[in-house]
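Lab meeting, action items carried over

1. Structure of the three-component assembly. Owner: GW. Status: complete.
Input record:
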Amino acid sequence: MFAHIYVNRLKCILKDKQIIFWTLMFPILLGTLFYLAFSNLSSAENFSRIPIAIIDNSEYQNSMLKTTIAYVSTDSGSENKMFEVTLTDEKGAEGLLKDNKIKGYILLKSDIGIKLTIKQSGLDQTLIKSFLDTFSQMNSTFTRIIQSDPKKYSDPSKRTELLKSSGYNSSILLEKAASKSKPDTTVNYFYTLIAMACLYGGFLGLKEIGALQADLSPEGARINVAPVHKMIILLSALAAALTVHFAEILVVLAYLIFVLKINFGDQIGFILLLSFVSCMLGLSFGAFVTSVVKKREGIKIGILTGASMFLSFLAGMMYVDIKYMIIKNAPIVGYLNPANLITDGFYALYFYDDHTRFYINLAGILIFTALFCIGTYLVLRRRRYASL
Amino acid sequence: MQVFKAYFLVIKKNLPQMFIYAGIFLALAVMISSLNKPTPAGEFSQSKIRLAIFNNDTKSQITNELKGFLSKNTEIVLLEDNNEKIQDALFFRNVEYIIRIPAGFAESLRSQKAMQIEKTSVPGSTTAIYTDLLINNFINTTLRYVKFEPLISDKGLAENVKKDLEINTKVEMKSFDTYSGNTLSIVYYFNYLSYSLFAILILGVSAFMMVFNNVDLKRRNLCAPFSSKSLNFQIFLGNLVFAVCVFVVLVGFSFVLYGRDMLTTNAALMCLNTVTFTFAAISASFLIGNFASPNSAPAITNVVTLGTCFISGVFVPQQFLGSTVLSVASFTPTFWFVKANNEIGSMINFSSENLFRLGGYMVTELVFAVLFLVIGFFVAKKRRVTKG
Amino acid sequence: MVIRIKDLVKKYGNLIALDQFNLEVNEGEIFGLLGPNGSGKTTAINCILALLTLDNGTIEVFDKPMSPDAYDIKRNIGVVMQNVAVFNELTVYENINYFCGLYVFDKKERKALVEEAIGFVGLQEFRKFYPKKLSGGLLRRLNIACGIAHKPKLIILDEPTVAVDPQSRNNILEGIVRLNELGATIIYTSHYMEEVEQICSRIVIMDKGKIVASGTTEELKKLVNSDETITLNDVFLELTGKELRDN
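Predicted assembly:
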């Protein structure tokens, strides 16, 4: 009996194009979109030159600043092209700034030193400032060094040697991973995508419960008059749904890992376990909503879609900072969000060396699944209906 | 005006789903606006990264100085030197940058063969780049002194470096009158709005078109005693009123959220931009409604809206998207909408040149509107003929 | 006694759907259940099938109390619902096979029964078709096949010929009579008086949750007017009134 129902429900699900689209094609499409959108991000230390203006005056023309800037701007032949420089007067510079043609302009005057004028804070402005800071600081260092032994540095060759050292800028920092994988923000987007795909399994739960509740479909009524225990029907139907859903998620995972080359870490066994449990979560969620919400199908679909999207969004699907904002301000929300539990479960496998965090998330997912299952059972076990 | 009335009955039926989209969007908008807190006008803000320092070197003046220097420019976080705790902190973004000063570091500096400092940071963080610069600068300044004043004492070295690095370029923030600090947030809001607006419009319009194109109804309508001209006019009117309502709700909420900050030329231009986009969106919805079926409509809605929004720079800013992606995106009205918004957001000089360019973008959106309308009518006519 | 209903009361909130409803169906009968919209026909059937909660009264089927767990009773009941109850994603054959499989475990036996059922309703050429491709009449025949494939002793048909073309309808009616000849007790509800008149041995007319009249066609005609030649339709309208009933 179990096998009979299982096989037939399997056929029904696999032939349902709509459901297969939502639970399989849609995550793949979305994943591809994410990939296209982010592909440039990681390789995007695409450093483009910062446009700046410098107010042309005699002080500037005779300064070291001019030489140094020339060295790092587009006119020079060197590699480090950091700036695109326009020489103009104050009014012109102000106009360019107003018009967003430059990020900032520099004024060098003997009584005030170097002044940078900008419009808003940002990375580019920070970099301009830090360049100027470094310049001024180096100047100060040289001055101090010269002053420490004026006699020595009255010799021009010694001065040249000193100034040459301004080119000496080693990088002292060695990047070390805190764990076997680097902390990464873009993978989070893909993990939330898997979470959403798992939650979309709710549609399968909706379909199966609908097909066996007499008050939800005529086929359900037919099944209720048959001499089969409802639990058997329920379990075999859900088993069929779980089989399909898990297979789909495996396909999505395979696509993400092997085609889009997203890093999930290498703990295959745990990844599979987490995926399986998450599928159960999505399925039981859908079954629960279907049994408990006593409105027409359209509303249930709306709730499932809305909830999946919203929960995934809170887990950082469109904007990863939302996730951290929640962690900082209302961490409990993070633990109560099934999508977040799934996402963090994957991230824990990717990032951590041990499994504590992973097990915490897994436990959370199992608790939710159990709650949804129990809720569904309590509603469904009633064999008679008040009305059909 | 029967058809007109029927239009809104159909819309009413689909209201729950539309509310879900609108609701998610508005919740999103509120959260994102609270994340992007405007920088107080007139201040150059350098957001401080959360940094943890593990010093494995003996106490020396220079490492103390390094720590002191870093504490002025970052937010020092005290962290237990335990691998799990470190991973946890990085995971929850309690710390974003960790450096480990190796044993014998100070010594190595003095012998001009600087050892490397291990660093772990969250990639993609712009402040991390700046912190890299700070640390390198500190070390290199120290090395300069050591090279050219080898006899300098530890104390003198620390002091000199400190004094040098205290030098800070003067920064002037120019605030041009109409510029409001919240403008960036408002740009995000309007960009996201394109997603919600588009989704709701497709939902509503295609729902109506599907009901209307339903063969039986069509037959009845074609036999009814009013002209197809009146029919089309009522449909057009229905679409228009619906679009206006959605527009008013979504844009109106921005006034609730941002209040007086909306009373700028920038915001006004964004509203105008939204109007032209709405035309394009409604025409696209009309086109889609002519070939969607109740089964495929949700799928098409999501793929079209999410897809176009992703590649057009709604979720991931345009500056980070690859050039191929952007070229493809330029065939959607969303792309031009977002592009215009971004430029409006930072515009201060409303010169004729700038306005002309913006006008070009908006006209492009209208061209899309006309295009979709024409194709839509063509598809509708063909359907009428073939499906009878 | 195949069905014995005693003092059945069923309420939907304040609305009384079945009011002290009593019914007896004998073995071998083709029993017609008639009534205007909202009279309680479908409710009565759903109660017999133990789908609905009862407010009062008892129901016995095959001389045993009926309940959702009474599998031995259920095994001998076949249902053809008002709404076509088949899965769109399964073919004609697969549908019949699925529902029959809930009653008959043995694969070989089931296969034979399914083939027989397909033949019985005349859907041999359509075995591999999906429900979406079937016309109204064919769908109804499929619906029937799904309900009777397991050769139940009691068959309940709730308006099985709605929107069906004359050929299919005739085929269905003939089939029902044949099933009865083969030993099944039939309960048949319909709005089509000619059908009921044609095949039912005993008829019960319901209104507002109560039985208004019962007996053979002849007995019912006598109840109203013994002189003119009247149809069952006239009897019906006479007993239940000509005003419109909305559900």
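2. GW to write a short summary for the group page. Key points so far: Chain C is about 35% helix and 25% strand. The interface with chain A takes residues 12, 46, 49-53, 68-69, 71-72, 74-75, 77, 79, 81, 83-87, 89-90, 94, 97-99, 101-103, 105, 146-147 of chain C (CB under 8 Å).
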